[in-house]
Amino acid sequence: MRVEVDVPKCVASGQCVMIAPDVFDQREEDGVVVLLDDRPAAELHADVRESAMICPAAAIRVVEQE
Length: 66
Hints:
- This protein has helices at about 15-20, 45-55; strands at about 1-5, 25, 35, 60-65.
- Strand 2 and strand 3 (about 35) form a beta hairpin.
- Helix content is about 25%, strand content about 20%.
- The chain is globular.
- It starts with a strand and ends with a strand.
- It is α+β, with helices and mostly antiparallel strands.
């Protein structure tokens, strides 16, 4: 799995950080997403997929790899 974020689309809701704090964080100044790990460990994949699914701005993209 590879994770991509579209930073300009982010609305700083913080949902991704609450679900997958090992993968996402927020900038102090404006709350916009910061991607901590673009290739998270397998045990984090479900949380990353959930984060992408509930992101209100659709700013998170998951690229499944074989």
